[in-house]
Specification:
The chain is an all-alpha fold and 237 residues long. It has helices at 14-34, 38-52, 65-77, 83-110, 116-133, 142-159, 162-175, 180-189, 194-218, 227-236. The protein is globular.
Length: 237
């Protein structure tokens, strides 16, 4: 019709999407990082020191990725403020980036099957529920980074980027030993070929090397979740 102009079908660029993901998770990250109360903040600091100093219980002692990433900016900020204050501020930035990465990797994962608009709606719904699903009393930063690494691994598996998948398996194992389940998912979702068997063997070797190496460097540790405790806890629920 005369007087009407057609607008082109434009897609958001990478920077615009990143800004959307950061904005969608900012409130949750700030509340999670600064709002749990003094007791939880103190517990976070103690666990952080225990992991880096190889004094905390297993399996937390071997989940080093998040503490290592947070420690670098904490050391830099501690030149200008007390260490605890520096750690709290560095943790908030970590939570924000981890949560934004969570919805970002979820978006990439959904884009394997859905349009950009559908995937964006889906991840924004996920962002809305983060405050519900992530309890702010949680004291372990790795719990905000685990989903992002898992989504990335699934995405790389679906898109066939095996080199990147190997790297992400290594990163996920530094975060949590349950990364072995990502290898299992890869194994059962790929065709049974010689290349798949070789890939699974290589991924398992990467996982095993990091798994054993972390326990060698960290030393033996007291275990809180024994099989007996797990059984009794599950039976009470």
């Amino acid at each position: 019709m005369i007087g009407q102009t057609s607008s082109p079908n434009r897609r958001l660029g990478s920077l615009a999407l990143a800004a959307v993901f950061v904005a969608a998770t900012a409130v949750t990250a700030l509340d999670y990082g600064l709002g749990p109360g003094d007791d939880s903040l103190l517990a976070r600091r103690d666990i952080h020191r225990g992991i880096l100093g190889h004094t905390t219980r297993a399996p937390d002692r071997y989940r080093v990725l998040a503490p290592a990433l947070i420690e670098v900016p904490t050391r830099l900020l501690s030149r200008f403020m007390p260490y605890d204050a520096a750690y709290d501020r560095a943790s908030v930035v970590f939570y924000l980036l981890a949560m934004a990465a969570l919805v970002g990797t979820q978006y990439a994962y959904l884009r394997v099957w859905f349009t950009a608009e559908q995937a964006l709606v889906g991840v924004l719904l996920v962002a809305c529920t983060l405050r519900i699903t992530i309890r702010r009393t949680t004291t372990r930063p790795r719990r905000t980074s685990s989903p992002a690494s898992s989504r990335s691994d699934c995405w790389r598996s679906c898109t066939g980027r095996r080199g990147w998948f190997a790297l992400l398996v290594a990163i996920a194992t530094l975060n949590r030993e349950t990364a072995i389940f990502l290898i299992a998912i890869f194994a059962v979702t790929q065709p049974v070929t010689t290349d798949t068997i070789k890939a699974v063997t290589a991924y398992f070797a990467i996982w095993l090397l990091i798994f054993v190496g972390l326990r060698f460097l960290g030393g033996d540790a007291e275990r809180y979740w024994t099989l007996d405790r797990v059984f009794r806890t599950m039976m009470r629920k």
